[in-house]
Amino acid sequence: MPHFLEKLLLALKDGPALSTAALDVDQVDPKVALIVKTSGSTGNPKSVLLTSQSLIASARASHQYLSASPGQRWSLLLPTTHIAGINVLVRSIELGTVPVGVDSQAEFSAIVPTQLHRAVHSDRQLLEHLQNCRAVLVGGARLDSELKKRAQDLGINVITTYGMSETSGGVIYDGKALDGVSFQIIDKHIALRGPQIAYGYLEGGFPIKDGWFITSDLGFIQDGALVVEARADDQIISGGENISLSAIESYLQSEYSNPEIVAFAKSDAEWGEKLCIATTSNIALDEIRSKLTNRFGSHTSPKELVRVSDIPYLSLGKPDRRKLSDDHS
């Protein structure tokens, strides 16, 4: 990691741009400090171009919200191939410290919901580490409200974050915009504006409208706070009905206290797309159908249940729905 930190520090100081993945080009705009490849969990991966100004703005806004001070430490529990891990490094640079691991003391940490679930249910070392942090940012995927409450009851100061590679990571903390960030709803989609917004995509086609970055996520504003309903690209249309895969997944994981339940879709001649469930557990399809029908309506009754030995995940802990669909087509 020291070598990577040195490269990142150089990139932030107008040195050569750093990329989290191999690229087909050897030159980018001089303003670009970092190229982050998105996961492509539900679509084609994109190469996000970020400037040093955007990355530093992200770190400073986060520290302002957290009342962080120089000398305090972050723990690095996420891969540095993703913006969430990169952000921990940039924040550490800003505080003049080096990030530590789960076996050391830190004031702050950043994790994904899967890690929080493991801390609450099985990973004692991780639980104790997070309990000793002043604040723990949880993002990258939808956080179940029951899991958040249980973690808080165990003494973890959970802050739910919302953002993406295109916004240099989280820019909304517990529904509130960080300093300098604005949000609104445009055509039902969440739109964001602020100094953290990316320079663009290497491939082009960056969704900017009148200065607003238009996300693929659906949401609404309630009492001044942003509520994220679902990722638009996590939604399917089955028999003419919209179904949110993340909502289905989150509900079932909470009902069964098991993160190894994933909703995915397969193409179908009759339904267009059919809802499928993959799990490592011995759960009956009729039982799942009953629960989902009672909670969301009959259109969410899954057409297929697949039992797997392991759920495939992308590197940041998101389920690889495309692989599930391909493997069980």
From TrEMBL:
One Gene Ontology term of the biological-process aspect is: fatty acid metabolic process
Q: Which domain of life is it from?
A: Bacteria
Q: Which Pfam families match?
A: AMP-binding
- Molecular function per GO: medium-chain fatty acid-CoA ligase activity
Domain AMP-dependent synthetase/ligase, chain residue ranges per copy: 29-173
PROSITE patterns, per the entry: AMP_BINDING
InterPro entries named in the record? AMP-bd_C_sf, AMP-binding_CS, AMP-dep_synth/lig_dom, ANL_N_sf
The UniProt entry, under PANTHER family, shows: ACYL-COA SYNTHETASE, ACYL-COA SYNTHETASE FAMILY MEMBER 3
Q: Which family does it belong to?
A: Belongs to the ATP-dependent AMP-binding enzyme family.
According to UniProt, the name of this protein is: AMP-dependent synthetase/ligase domain-containing protein
Can you name the source organism?
Actinobacteria bacterium BACL2 MAG-121220-bin52
User: Lineage of this protein's species?
Assistant: Bacteria, Bacillati, Actinomycetota, Actinomycetes, Actinomycetes incertae sedis
